[in-house]
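Sat 14:20. Reprocessing the chain from the morning session after the first attempt stalled halfway. Input below, unchanged.
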Amino acid sequence: MTNQTTSIPLHDRIRLIRIQAFFRSATGNPFSLVLGGGLSALALTSVGVPSYPLRVWFALILLLSGLIFAFERFVKRRGLTQENAGSLFRRRVALGLVNAALFGGVIGLVPEGTAQTAYLLVFVVVSAVAALGYMSYATEFRYGLAVSVLTIAPYALFCFYRYFAQGDAFLLLTGIIALVWQAVVVSKALHVSRSAVGEIEAGERLRDEMAGREQVERELRDSQDESRQLATMLRMMCDNVPDMIWAKDLEGRYIFANKALCEKLLGTSDTSAPLGKTFDHFAERERAVYPDQPEWHTYGQFSQDVDRHTLSREEPTIYEESGNVRGSFVFLDVHQARFVSARGEVIGTVGCARDITARKASEAFVHHLAHHDALTDLPNRALLNERLRQALAQVRRDRTKLAVLFIDLDRLKPVNDTLGHDIGDLLLMEVAARLRSVMTRRVGTVARLGGDEFVILLPRINKEQDAEAAAERVLLALRQPFRADQHTIRISASIGVAFAPQHGLEAEALLKSADTAMYCVKRERGDDFRFFDESMQPPADDPTLL
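Finished this time. Tokens:
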């Protein structure tokens, strides 16, 4: 259950605590009701009560008890708050009253002429349920009374009815005993309920008094040397955070600098050193020590420009900055705002900066992983498509040409099947290295699509012969024997070539055309290349094309 603070009104706090107490005391009710219902059903069956209606009755007990158990678990997970306690309690009470009514109504299943033992068994059951209700509703007497009435009253009324119908004095006696038991239990439960509620109210009033007393004492203590303590606290807080924190006057001179700013950015361990100086002082010192690193040299002027921008607007200024600091390149995430006095006057700027160099390096690494093949470190399909779209945009804009070489290795599957995938991976890595070497003197992209499929993108070619020459170089490079873990392996490649703009101006269409041309070579035993033409048929699934 959730703990409530003294900020909540006393009446509401007491109500919440009473509801919390109810849910704690009612935790075992479902199991008790199931056990009592089961034993009652078995006992009543043994003394002649028909078993079928008892099974139906017990099934309803199981259902209601299961709903109560599930509801209490839900309340435990969600927690009781000032806002939801009332509605959750009312729902739980409704379930409890329905269950109590089921137990009270079991007497109606006892047919006429049944042995007196059956009535005694029912009396024991309803008495136990009534007592359980009172124990559970110790802080909510009226609901406990309702549970008792719903269990005892039906039993008493039924006994009186059977007495007048049958003239059995035993039934009259048991009905009277039930009512007396009801009165005794009600009296005792009322006393217990008043005591429990009284203890809760007294405890909460005492808690309020103690909280009020502690608050007064705390305010008296805090009022002593408040200004000095606040200044010391702020200095300690600022000096013990990893972020860089500063304050400047209207002229850009530092009036406060924390330890992180001095050590990481300004190159000093003395937090008083920047006071009265502008950033230009430290930028000039950086320039003298590292004259060949201009990235940080302009930051003094840049800092002044940002200060003026921040002073001219009410909203904070947020930006990223990067450059060399004492020979190391850093990225900073900077937040800066106007420094406003207690009288509402703008007296300078305040700011903080976080070193995000590691985060930027992680982002760059993740970006590389997302756009490169894990095995060969070649660009993957995503990066290829991005570069292909850029190259096609250039084709449309400048009326140039580009070529796409779709490469599929021949006989890689037998290598994997006979020598293992580890050897196959080594072979793929060497293939990637040879394809890179083919492209060393050209501007282009070598990518791996997956498996044994590679693509070479040749932008800004002058004529188709350039692509033909590139394909020949690829074939020649891949015909040379490969060495992988003391194995000599010979493979070849099938290459399909498509051109833009004649074979398409969309990345997907161009790759599909090159793929179609490649499969034509594959069907002709491979180790060759073909230019795409419209007469070629798209590839069909053929397991023999390896």
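The chain has three domains: 10-211, 238-356, 372-531.
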